[in-house]
Amino acid sequence: QHCDTYKEAVVSTQSTGTTEHTATSVDYLALGLSRGRVYLSYDLGTGPALLRCPRRVDDGAWHFAHVTLRGKHAVLMVDRWATEAVSPGERTVLNVGPHLFVGGAPLGHMPAMFQAGIQGCVESVAIWDAPLSMSDSVVSSNVEYCEDNVPETSIYYMRYRL
Q1: Which residues, in sequence order, are CB contacts of 56 under 8 Å at separation 6+?
Q2: CA spacing 20 to 30 A to 143: which of 17, 97, 115, 136?
Q3: Beta strand pairing status for 130-131 and 48-52?
C-alpha cells in the first residue's frame, strides 16, 4: 500500500499558521498551528480528517512533526506524542499536485483554520525521506532565513538525521 511521509522541524511563538500544504481541487494535506497546537487536516476526496496534538508548541522552542499517510490511515507525531485517524469514504490515495507550499499557501486553498502563514522557522523539511531545501523552491514570498537551526544535539536531529 502506498505510503506518504512528511517531516519538518518548526519553531514559533505564534499560535496560528500554516507550515505545509499541498492540494488539488478536492484532495489536500495541510499541517499547521491552531491555538498553539499542531493540527493535520487531510482529505482524500471523500471528506476531511483532522488530527491534533494536545501539547502546545508555540513556546519558541524547536519541535519535530512527522506525518505518515498510508491509505486512509494517518499518523501525526509531534516530538514524542502521536495520534492517528482514518479518513471517511472509500478512497485510499492522496491525489495532490506537484506543489508543496511551506510556511503558507494561496488563499482559498486551505481549511479555514490554516488561512494564515506561519511566523517562525520551518526547517529540515523532507518528503518520502528526501530532504528539501530553499534551492528546490520555484517561487518564494516573504521568506527569510532563520538564524537558529535545529540543535545538532537534539534527539530529533540525531534520530531523524534532519
Answers
A1: 36, 37
A2: 97
A3: unpaired
